[in-house]
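Mods, move this if it's the wrong board.
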Amino acid sequence: MKEINETLLNKLYVFYDEALKSIKMKLKENASEFEIAYHYTNSEGLKGIIESKKMWATNCFFLNDPREFFYGWRFVGDVLARISTKVQKSKRYKKIIDEYIQKAETALVNHGGIPLDLYIISFSEECDSLSQWRAYTKNEKGYVIGINPHDIPHATFDFDFYMSQEFPVLNFIKVIYDLDTQISLIIETFDNLVNGIISCLKENKITYRQGEHEIIWIMFFLHIFFCALLKDPHFKDEREIRILLFCPKSGNILKKDNDINTKALFRIANEIITPYIEVDFSSKINDNIMPIKEIITGPNHDIKSLMGLDIFLKQKGYNNKNMPDLSLSNILLK
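Not the wrong board. Structure tokens:
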């Protein structure tokens, strides 16, 4: 495995960040539209979250539905292929795109020295959705936790991340379902990045072959990001919000003043060893509790679920000042 040329990579970062400007603007606009993010879980999940004040961010390659990731993977590849064949660009430009398309699949399967350290926690704007009760809970008897993302330490809505950053942050994003928006963002972002790569090669008087590994590395990372940002338009009713946690030094424990331990843990899910990271959701105001605004019980729960939840939360430090609103689902099942 070829070692990364950190000097060249840091120079490419500048163009990488510049290429992300349009996406950042779009994500900031979207983030202003929600105040509470809702997380669906079962009874054991709720109990564990409240007791530990932590949630699990799962590696992007191990989401419950693998199609979630591969939709973005194939879609970005198709758009890049269209750019290469139908858009009038220089030979160098097309060479970079074509070489990336050819090598990306191998890099994905074999890791190829590429960092696969993107972790995701899923939320929704929908607080009482029957399809999500059925997807994430057993017999519609789960819970949905409404969290104020603005009160979570290390959370940002500015999409403030760099692959070389010392401390990871929690990037709240709204998933993009609109097909035209997806296409325009992919074209604009990759176009800016490839033009930046060409400028970087010229400025540093190096050939594509000399910087090939770093170029593939940085394009792959952008590709992975789009896989987390985009979803099939057929699922638009989910109105998903995601936390993206980039861990460029995954496997290491970063400095303690970050409070995010980026050393991956492992659980068994569907007979697969699945990497995840525990993320502390203690409130900025009171680190003994989480910034929970409301909890809704599933459609098949009755009043006893609220009574038990009320007693449980009071024992865990929630009181009249910070007790979440507790309510039953408004969905009536036949």
